[in-house]
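worker-03 picked up job from queue 'complexes'. Input manifest follows; two sequence lines, order preserved.
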Amino acid sequence: MTTTSHVPATAAAPPRLLALRRFARQFARMPTAMAGLGILVAVTALALAAPLFIHPSDLGVINAPGPPLAPPSAQFPLGTDYAGRSILTLLVWGTRPSLAIGLIATVLTMIVGSVIGLLAGHYGGFPSRMLMAVTDWFIALPALPLAIALAAVLGQGDASITIAIAVTSWPGTARLIRAQTLAVEARPFIERAKALGARDGQLMARQVLPNVAPFILVSGTLTIAGAILSETTLTFLGLGNPTDVSWGSMINQAFNQGAVSSGAWWYILPPGVAILIVVLGFTLVGRAVENILNPRMAAKI
Amino acid sequence: MVQTAPPLLEVRDLAVTYGSGEQAVRAVRGVGFTLQAGQTMGMAGESGCGKTTVALSLLRLLPRTTTLSGRILFKGEDIIGLGWQKLRAVRWAEASVVFQGAMSALNPVRTVGEQIREPILLHEKAERREAEARTAELLDSVGVPARRQASYPHELSGGQRQRVMIAMALACRPQLIIADEPTTALDVIVQAQILALLTGLVRERQISMIVISHDLSVLGETCDRLAIMYAGRMVEVGPSRQVLGEPRHPYTTILSHAYPHTGDPASRLAPAGLPGEPPDLRGDLAGCPFAPRCPEAIPECLTRDVELWPAGAQRESACIKVLDEYAPSPDRGAAAARAPQVSPPTLATPQCSSPDSGRTPEHGPVLEANGLRVVFPARRGRGPARAVDDANLSIGRGEILALIGESGCGKSTLARALVGLVQPTGGEVRYEGAPLRYSSAALREHRRHVQLVLQDPAGALNPRQNVFDAVAEGPRLHGMRTGLADRVHDALARAGLRPPAQFIGRYPHELSGGQQQRVVIAGALALGPSVVVADEPVSSLDASVRGEILKLILTLRDQLSLAALIVSHDLGVAWNIADRVAVMYLGRIVEAGPVHEILLQPRHPYTQALISVLPGGGGDHPGRVLTGEPPDPTAIPPGCRFHPRCPRLAALPAGDARAELCRGTPVAVLPASAGEGAGSSLVACHLAAPRSSPVTEPGLPSSQGAR
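worker-03 finished. Artifact:
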């Protein structure tokens, strides 16, 4: 038994490694991809390292270090908010919930979308039509009101926002994966696997899934950008955790505290630019991955 | 020879390179030839030999990253240096192309009429009305009704589409037509029709033509001269008949043997193939590029660079052996003592077998179809398709049965029903005498014993599984986990991938077509089946590989007494390896029996038509190329299914009573046991001629033999 599992593993390693290396080389050759990756690495590092140089008390409204709505200065490079907190500190801290919710919501989206897409694509017939009808129904629902309603029902908080984002973004993935599943299922190796005696589950797990996996990855990197935007939108609308600091809540507060009318541009612009940069980073990377893994589809989009 | 007029086309030292740097593929390496006006030339070779690249470079239709060097003089002008404006004028108006795969070469959203008119309107600035008249005339000349002008490509059959492509190529009255695999995707009978049409038109209009094909037999019948290509070079050039009849390069010998002449005892049960792979076209090739695979190579082949040397009247060959014979040079006098004639490769040594070598199964059939029907439901305004309609078939233990028919005759559906992939609408499949049940567990059990090998090995392997996983797939699915590695190694070795350890880590795209098919076969063998159903196992493979795979199937039968059902459109496959043949037409077996009986003395007019289009088969049954299109299983004619296309019925004198029989009375269905043993072939035809042996009773309305 040990020899059984060793032989393929050792023999299979080099080609897989080679494929990965080829992917890395192609990726490194695209300047936009490397720029996107640079942004993501920097932002992630910042988010992970934030607790090292930001003390929770810096984020408190009570003992704010500076005067309210002070313009950028040497002490506060991006100025302060209505309570006198440093915008820069808030901005760095706000990376954490944005990335976390974006990632978790995307993972949920991928799981739900892939499972439904795979099932609908594999079984066909009545079950497939039912699943796709539900998917279409979700596509037709206006995403924002649905998310607001969901967050309202589930209560304020990060969990409800995550779920709301996942619920509204899975149909696109499901459609994509179903289409790819149909394409893969039409190929002869599926028939060969059937002739070898594969059952439905085995077919899906061993033959179809590895072939649609690149599409799941591509769809995931592009979904993250949307999820972060949705997260910002929903927290801006006041559906997030009210005690937490995130980019959406910063813009929300700036809006409520009259930053626009008092001309405090340093309060509104930084979170907006931060969102732009992170979304740009994910989009660049996503597009690059898509270009490498699936050049034909990238050309169509 | 008429050498006074300058040649229409003269190619000198043409080299084509794809890409650049270390990965650059030097696809064509110094090709030169001339083509006189009105002459036809064939270019043959296996995939990757550069034949299509040469053809496309003649009109500079290659991608921008390609580097061309040498000279291509078309009517005295060098195509390589031509400006775009002038090149456009040459393209289509003076030289046009018939592409392979008419479905993808035609625009699906425009009518065929518009597409034929396009070059006329573009190049000749013709009036619309005039162009329409020309289009009608062109369609008429290629045998498509002129009213089909308004049809879209998908409304036409494959043969009609290829005819439309020919009409398009003729549209501007070119002086040169380049036909790139013009008949490759077509059925044998349609292929014969298209070839006859193409040669007729070209001769009639005095057009020069270059035909590219992997199939030498196609070229032999259409072309005056033949050029064989290997690894980017021409290896033999000469008049077609001489090149085919008496090859002067070992590679030509192998190619010409790959598609056997039925009735040739040397190829019976001895398919000709060639081990090894063509060389990598990146980088330089020292010596003769064919030497590593050549059965007659001598040490000098590996070092001495080859070029086309004269090899007799109007003939050239790039084999150093012709040097001795046709242009003895003083320094090679000693070598000239060797046998001068290029002998056929030792590989194709016929295993001398009596014509009666069709085996009789020792104990009953292992796999049977009894009255099998498969009906696909009606869709898009067409009636239900009766793909398999009351078919009986049986495969004996250790027997190789070839199932032959045109596309759409239901042979693939029948094969899939035997594997249990398609559930029949009626009738039953029996394995070892027990009917197949369609429960999940019963099907899994069935599939351990009856395995499928598909046509396209590249598609049949999951690109994300390596060779080990692909072969281990079957045993894993059936929970045979103990000794899995040994099982896989054993299967790979049996399928001819030795040593297995060298292959197990590779992925499908790293293997050649022949190796991929061996992996598929190994995957089937890993389950230890007793029957393999192979659907066109060699039709997507190159000529030299084809023979190797067929040999493998024969070897497996001999070593493992593995029975096989080989589904094919190619009677040559049957002649090469089968014991018994069943010919299928519109969902039913129309003739079945031992190979030598069916292929040498066919009694059904359909079988006769199939044989007449084979190379070398035409002599016995001239003029039997069927007219009409391949059959449509949604509209099966009453009476004998074959009667609308039947040449024998058409030849009956008017008022013959038997004509009514053909049109109105269905022919009796052949039993599964047809043709087991010599002299027992059966035929489903009202008009079948009685055989000299007493198997048929001439008086019967159906001349189906009583056993």
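worker-03 released lock.
Residues 87-123 of chain A form the longest helix (37 residues).
Chain A touches chain B at residues 1, 3-4, 7-8, 11-15, 187-189, 191-199, 202, 206-207, 210-211 (CB under 8 Å).
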